[in-house]
TrEMBL record:
InterPro entries: Calcineurin-like_PHP (IPR004843), Metallo-depent_PP-like (IPR029052), UPF0046_metallophosphoest (IPR051693). It comes from Marinobacter qingdaonensis. It comes from the Bacteria. It holds the Pfam family Metallophos. This is Metallophosphatase domain-containing protein. Residues 1-177 form the Calcineurin-like phosphoesterase domain.
Amino acid sequence: MRIVCISDTHSLHDQIEGIPHGDVLIHAGDLTGSGRIPAGFEAVEWLSQLPHRHKILIAGNHDFCFEDYSAWMREHCERCEVIYLEDESTVIDGVKFHGSPWTPRFRDMAYNADPALAAEKMRLVPADTDVLITHGPPRGVMDYVPEDDLHVGCLSVEARIPFLKSLKAHVFGHIHEGYGILEKGGVVYVNASTCTERYKPTNPPIVIDI
């Protein structure tokens, strides 16, 4: 299965060129910049027009429309044939994907989670998950913010991964500075942030085969 990974497009999708073909397209959150419903609708429609047979989407900390108007956004995703996952799983051709939008609390953003809530959400990830999609990274993996000299990934995500015995890939975004791909402990980690730290949507999609 060929998986094409993007994230953090922040309503700048019209500027993105050359998304490779694949079996599954994953968008790991921050589909919008403003988080407003019209921006969310438009970005979902853009996703739906891409040629990939399956499109999977989770929300991010900018995507207030998904947190505040979940039913409307979910209905729009279904109408556009985009698979929206919020602490849910889906199976495609025998591969189990699980998506979760929560990130450690930062300012007053969408899907902020304190440690107890983050741990609760990570306990929902099935042990037989093949591809984990979270908006933010685990602690210590492509989560470094040079300006603050901090690793800002989620401890609860890091703690859950060793219990996911089938895990082949973990796709996330959120930390634009961490863009890239890394193999560690038999798992391929993908920080698919499309936008750079200066919010330029120039980082190429990352393609993985599982």
